[in-house]
Amino acid sequence: MEIRPNKPITPAQNENSTPKSPKNNASEEKRVETTTTEESHLREVFGERFFGSDDWKHSFGISLSREQLANIPRFPWSNAHLNQPCPFTPGARVRDTHMAFLGIDHHTVLFFKFSVTINLLSGLRGFHYQPRISISSSFQHQNPNFTSQENLQYRWYLAPLQPPHYSYTIPNDAIAQLPRRYSLSSTLVETTKLFLYYAKNGIYPRTNTLSFTSDEFSHNSRVLVGVQDNAIRLSTTHYRPNNFSITTACTLNPPRKEVNTWA
Question: Is 161 among the domain residues?
Answer without folding.
Answer: yes
